[in-house]
Design goal:
heterodimer; A: alpha/beta; Transcription Regulator spoIIAA; five-stranded mixed beta sheet; two-stranded parallel ribbon; 4 helices; B: alpha+beta; eight-stranded antiparallel beta sheet; 24% helix; globular
Chain lengths: 111, 174
């Protein structure tokens, strides 16, 4: 699993570098994100700009991260989704649960 | 000109998650020989395929697990077929069901509950579990079946106790 991470002020921006966010990467991704939260990260932006598709395993990892963050008054913004992935969020109504933004700039502005 | 007689396409399911995308591309190419999908329908079919194949990679022990597509206007049926043990639920209720036409909430594993309607002793239909109430608190972390349910017009599971055949049957209106 290839990720890049960068802090912009107190916001941790994670960019998923893989094209496929799937079963083979979901568990590792979840563990890495939960470690970041354990280490004190509370404001997260996850960019899917390189991701071509994601499956339910990876979505489950995102749900787990959000469930961990919310009781800690944390915030998670998902950004730069392609149309297929955005459709998945809409169809499953997860767009009502997650904060979705089209660009990194608009994501940063939500904090 | 679209083919009006039922057309069947059978493809062996890959065993590596990283092969899913190229596999789906191949399936869509095959489908494209017979029907033209709208963009919305193609997106739904992609989601269904991703989740059926992911489920197969995660749970099937059958090396010959198969995906079968049947075009029978106005429906497209996508079946994932394998030979193996039937689905086992956590809890007392199991297949074969005693009572038909009953709606149940079953759990496939921790954090993976689903509403179903029993349609036969060895068959059930998946229902939309979060139609009326969706929140992060009640949302599971495993929801491949939920994605297939909302992306399709009908999603069923059937087990044949004699042949040990498990079939997930997904129907999409064309």
């Amino acid at each position: 699993m290839k990720l890049t991470k960068e802090y912009i002020d107190n916001i941790l921006v994670i960019v998923i570098e893989d094209k496929e966010a799937n079963l083979s990467k979901a568990e590792q991704f979840k563990e890495l994100m939960l470690q970041e939260v354990e280490s004190g990260a509370r404001n997260l932006i996850i960019s899917f700009k390189n991701v071509e598709y994601l499956d339910s395993s990876f979505l489950g990892a995102l749900v787990a991260v959000l469930k961990k963050l919310l009781p800690l008054n944390g915030k998670l913004v998902i950004t730069e989704l392609n149309d297929d992935i955005l459709n998945l969020f809409t169809l499953t109504r997860l767009d009502k649960i997650f904060t979705l933004k089209s660009t990194l700039q608009t994501s940063l502005e939500t904090f | 000109m679209e083919n009006l007689s039922p057309t069947k396409i059978g493809l062996k399911i890959p065993d590596n998650p990283d092969d899913i995308q190229s596999y789906i591309f191949r399936v869509l190419q095959e489908l494209g020989k017979y029907i033209t999908l709208t963009q919305e329908l193609e997106r739904k079919v992609k989601l269904i395929l991703i989740e059926l194949i992911t489920n197969s990679i995660k749970h099937s022990t059958d090396p010959d697990a198969l995906l079968q597509l049947t075009i029978n206007h106005p429906k497209l049926t996508i079946e994932k077929i394998d030979i193996g043990l039937q689905i086992v639920f956590e809890g007392a209720e199991q297949i074969p069901f005693k009572e038909i036409n009953k709606t149940l909430q079953v759990s496939f594993s921790e954090n993976n509950s689903h509403d179903i309607k029993v349609t036969d002793h060895y068959k059930f239909k998946f229902l939309d579990s979060f139609k009326d109430d969706i929140s992060i608190n009640n949302f599971p972390e495993h929801f491949g079946f939920f994605i297939i349910t909302v992306a399709s017009d009908s999603f069923e599971y059937e087990h044949d106790p004699e042949s040990k055949k498990n079939t997930f049957i997904v129907q999409v209106n064309l």
